[in-house]
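User: Hi! I have a protein structure encoded as tokens and I'd like to know what sequence might fold into it. I'm fairly new to this, so please keep things simple.
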């Protein structure tokens, strides 16, 4: 029998400090997530300097808890993995420093992980991945269509030209007076409303797989401001539903174009916006209506947002390939595939 591989993984790219212990890239022995969201809410977004300070405060507690919950000692570990980008430079550096320290002190290999790859591989906790598979990566910072050709081999087919989809949710949420991050509330409101405002579906007619969400955001803001000036009352749920309907049309259109050009057996949807119930329902319906023999994979809700378990999942593949870095590993805030 093959020996188990146990990896300690770190994630600190934005506003979650997370440490996980993962067995063979598939079994979550522990996944501690310390969120700082309350500290950022009053600013309406993540404040980088505040985020770094919280990471410093939280990281050692997270390490201790992750080891305690997994019931492992440093001797049980085979490697240490860490997100080195993309993300906030000050936040990334805290996780990198902690991971390097453990790697150095316990003579363990250090695995440098791309945060976006981590999001995609959160699907590995749900199903056995079949290559090639298509992935729709939708988060607060990214909106990409990525073809995963083989384990750890990525090709970006489409990207956003301006705002990320989660960012658009948060911005229109602000206009509606919702607390940051607003995605979940907009999703809940849209279930109670109707698509009556017909916001633009940007770029759906263009023959490419790229996205643009700044136009719909501006159209939304203009609609609300014009109504305010005329003292007109707009139905908030209808506004949310109209925004979400446009977003879902855009995501669905580009995703299935990508699948048409690159036949796959699985679609993995990952990132914070993969928690969206409207998106889950819409893509399931599309697959049925189009009669496609494709498995739609959404990570469980707790693995849609930032977490270290997903970093441990992709790290296993890198471990098997011997994809290690030296102790001079630096952060790469704008890392892509
Ligand atoms: O992946 P994530 O936790 O952090 C980044 O790496 O960006 O994604 C956070 C984003 C936020 O913009 C948040 O509003 C959005 O995910 N989000 C949602 C939902 N839950 C979280 N957006 C739409 N519907 C949701 N249910
Ligand atoms: Zn993320």
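Assistant: Happy to help. Inverse folding works backwards from shape to sequence: for each of the 337 positions I chose a residue that suits the local structure. Here it is:
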């Amino acid at each position: 029998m093959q020996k188990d591989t146990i990896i300690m993984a770190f994630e600190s790219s934005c506003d979650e400090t997370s440490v996980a212990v993962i067995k063979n890239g598939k079994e979550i022995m522990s996944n501690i997530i310390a969120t700082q969201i309350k500290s950022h809410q009053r600013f309406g977004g993540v404040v980088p300097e505040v985020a770094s300070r919280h990471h410093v405060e939280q990281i050692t507690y997270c390490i201790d808890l992750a080891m305690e919950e997994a019931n492992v000692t440093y001797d049980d570990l085979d490697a240490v993995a860490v997100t080195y980008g993309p993300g906030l430079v000050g936040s990334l550096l805290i996780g990198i420093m902690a991971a390097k320290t453990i790697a150095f002190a316990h003579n363990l290999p250090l695995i440098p992980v791309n945060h976006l790859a981590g999001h995609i591989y959160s699907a590995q906790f749900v199903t056995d991945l079949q290559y090639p598979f298509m992935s729709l990566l939708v988060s607060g910072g990214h909106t990409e269509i990525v073809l995963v050709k083989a384990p750890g081999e990525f090709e970006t087919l489409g990207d956003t030209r301006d705002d990320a989809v989660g960012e658009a949710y948060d911005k229109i949420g602000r206009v509606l007076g919702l607390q940051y991050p607003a995605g979940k509330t907009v999703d809940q409101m849209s279930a109670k409303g109707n698509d009556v405002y017909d916001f633009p579906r940007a770029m759906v007619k263009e023959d490419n797989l790229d996205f643009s969400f700044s136009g719909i955001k501006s159209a939304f803001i203009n609609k609300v401001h014009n109504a305010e000036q005329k003292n007109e009352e707009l139905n908030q749920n209808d506004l949310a539903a109209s925004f979400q309907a446009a977003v879902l049309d855009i995501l669905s259109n580009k995703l299935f174009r990508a699948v048409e050009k690159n036949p796959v057996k699985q679609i993995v949807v990952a990132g914070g916006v993969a928690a969206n119930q409207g998106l889950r329902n819409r893509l399931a319906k599309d697959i049925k209506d189009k009669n496609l023999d494709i498995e739609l994979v959404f990570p469980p809700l707790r693995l849609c947002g930032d977490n270290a378990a997903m970093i441990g999942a992709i790290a296993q593949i890198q471990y098997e390939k011997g994809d290690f870095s030296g102790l001079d590993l630096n952060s790469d805030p704008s890392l892509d595939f």
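A useful reference point when you look it over: The beta strands are 6-11, 16-23, 27-35, 79-85, 110-114, 133-138, 143-150, 153-159, 266-270, 295-297. Feel free to ask if any position seems puzzling.
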